[in-house]
Design brief:
The protein is mainly α. 66% of the residues lie in helices and 4% in strands.
């Protein structure tokens, strides 16, 4: 059976349905299934057109559909139908002739665009090689769609490892306590528009909101920001945007504290 929260949602919708006293019961139930992300017509309930769908029948159909979805996710490396649809569109941009696989220049472009940081980080070169061997790119020089799904999944895991490694290194370098790190993460998230990186303008706005920054302090902040950009590029190679990730932000704050920027140094 499906999760209890799914049952609760269904029960809620069933109660709502009964209160609405819709005439066309089967179409209502089909719309409820659509609300759960299932595309199914009224024939799935297996009753005559004029008959109402019982609660037991509805729950049985839902249970079957959830089981099929879980099976589909397992077969597709954990991706659900909507994620599969989006990833298929991405894959097709590298397979414009719809031949079913990506190779040669398009494969190089795919890897460099999907793995921009991993492909440049020396620490993860062995892991990147292992990933490519795992999805059989190393031996064949081709990447089919299902191997592409595995590649994205493995790269997502490797990316999380890389972020954790960089954050742990930044914590050690700065000497911040866990409470400090959490407080600065809150500041970082407040400044960031995408929760992953911050621009200089976002950092400037964050500091300016607590201490007005004139030309002198703005120039000092900009120089410190550029120093962290340089260090990040030394660590990860060329980047498309001049932005800092959270580990870089921690180091930036530490440097500003050490120089008592805008009275930031702790008492």
């Amino acid at each position: 059976m499906f999760a209890a929260e799914g049952c609760n949602m269904i029960a809620y919708h069933l109660v709502s349905l009964e209160c609405q006293q819709e005439v066309d019961s089967q179409n209502c139930e089909a719309r409820l299934l659509a609300g759960f992300g299932f595309t199914a017509d009224v024939q799935i309930f297996g009753v005559d057109e004029d008959d109402e769908v019982s609660e037991d029948c509805f729950l049985t159909v839902c249970s079957k559909l959830f089981q099929e979805r879980r099976k589909e996710c397992r077969q597709n490396g954990g991706w659900n139908f909507e994620q599969m649809r989006l990833l298929k569109k991405v894959f097709e941009t590298y397979d414009p002739h719809n031949i079913g696989f990506v190779a040669n220049k398009e494969l190089i472009r795919l890897l460099s665009e999907i793995l921009p940081n991993l492909s440049r980080d020396p620490f993860f070169r062995p892991e990147l090689k292992a990933i490519l061997q795992n999805v059989q790119v190393e031996g064949t020089g081709r990447l089919g769609f299902h191997d592409f799904l595995s590649l994205v999944q493995l790269c997502r895991s490797a990316q999380e490892k890389m972020v954790a490694r960089r954050q742990q290194a930044a914590i050690q370098d700065t000497g911040f306590s866990q409470s400090d790190v959490q407080a600065y993460r809150d500041f970082f998230l407040a400044a960031s528009t995408n929760s992953n990186t911050v621009t200089f303008e976002e950092v400037w706005t964050l500091f300016h909101s607590t201490t007005p920054l004139g030309n002198g302090l703005t120039e000092t902040l900009h120089a410190a920001f550029k120093d962290q950009l340089r260090l990040r590029k030394d660590d990860q190679g060329e980047m498309q945007d001049d932005v800092l990730e959270f580990p870089d932000f921690l180091r930036l704050v530490k440097d500003l504290e050490d120089t008592n920027f805008a009275g930031l140094s702790k008492a």
